[in-house]
């Protein structure tokens, strides 16, 4: 085969390496509903509201400040941001020449019938070569200087990878913001749970006091022959049941306090808290805003969006891997075959080597890598879509919960008042012999359960407010 044939084959292989593959398009359209199902059309989203303005309990805000300073998950998230920043720095520096300084030394002994051997022998016979210019045999080679490797970003491949790393850095920042939002929500929920448990404990102890008096009264009536031992046993059994509830609530308080301390990054200790939840007013109503505002406020949606951008850039970079790449390798330094003259200015040497290469036999690997990045981009888009749908659903759920529980609490409050009157009436009737002890026990039990249910509903109200605040993306703004 003549040289022209070799050149033609090389040109065909190079052209084959430059041919790219088609990428299926990704449908990234996502239509959001204009409003939430609750009909809220407020233009001011609560996500822009600092938690200090929403949660006005000074004790709670102090706990939140401690959590934002000492929470271990936040510290871990900060380290992840450091990692992402370093990765972005690596991708950013890929656009710049890679320069290294070094010194090398070597020695070669050329054979008599080699090109270098004949050339060196012939050179030393020249009258122009004398002294330190004569080539020794064996021939050392010394070099001290700078060498560089620089891939020229002809098609923007390296720039796209740098942009992808930057979007992943932004995603890691949003990941920290998501932890902040979740942390504020969790600490607040546990705090209101503690207030509710305190309220339950207060109600239970009030009922224990009333039931102890009832036991004393029924024992007096038994001594007078008005009731039997069965009545006394029923009242005592109810008293024991209520005392057991006290123990259960005390354990629940201990567990809730431990959860708060864990979120605050400290060992178990007593948690200070305000007054009873029975008299605690709800925070001001939240402005839900429009669903489109979730895209700016919710950290999980913002993080998913940045990951989607990064994945799409990865696909573009993977496609550009099929294009030829140009690499330059310049160098400058001192080079000599005698160590004594290495520092002489006449030993200064410079050079540059350029290479243009295109993939030929590794196209299967590049195609597989492209498919991997394409699938990752599809997955990132689906995760983004899922996070948006989840966000709208959560806001809708908590909005309706706040509206409905307000009415439920009103009905339950009225029920408690009626049952208290019924319990008082049953006590009076029992004292005059017009009601049985079972009616008294039932009335007392109903009041206790209704009061505990009311506490639970009020706790649910506060939880719904906190959950809506978190669903709207609030809490992470500084």
Can you put this structure into words, describing what you see?
The chain is of the alpha+beta class and 478 residues long. The chain has 2 domains: 352 residues, Outer membrane efflux proteins (OEP) (Up-down Bundle); 84 residues, Outer membrane efflux proteins (OEP), CATH 2.20.200. Helix content is 62%, strand content 10%. The protein is built from 11 helices and 4 strands; from the N terminus they run H-H-H-H-E-H-E-H-H-H-H-E-E-H-H. The chain has a 4-stranded antiparallel beta sheet with strand order 1-2-3-4, with no helix packed on it. Helix 3 crosses helix 6, helix 6 packs antiparallel against helix 7 and helix 7 packs parallel to helix 11. The protein starts with a helix and ends in a 7-residue tail after the last helix. It holds the Pfam family OEP. Belongs to the outer membrane factor (OMF) (TC 1.B.17) family.
> What's the structural domain tally?
2
What would you give as the CATH superfamily of the largest domain?
Answer: Outer membrane efflux proteins (OEP)
Terminus-to-terminus distance:
73 Å
Largest sheet: 4 strands, antiparallel
Helix content: 55-70%
Q: What structural category characterises the helix and strand content?
A: alpha+beta
CATH-level-2 architecture of the largest domain: Up-down Bundle
Identify the overall geometry: elongated
Overall mean confidence score, pLDDT? 86
Percent in strands: 5-15%
Number of strands: 4
- Kindly report the CATH topology of the largest domain: Outer membrane efflux proteins (OEP)
Strand order of the largest sheet: 1-2-3-4
Poorly predicted ranges (pLDDT <50, ≥5 residues)? 3-27, 39-44
GO cellular component, one term: plasma membrane
Protein name: Efflux transporter, outer membrane factor (OMF) lipoprotein, NodT family
InterPro entries: MdtP/NodT-like (IPR010131), OMP_efflux (IPR003423)
Keywords: Lipoprotein, Membrane, Palmitate, Transmembrane, Transmembrane beta strand
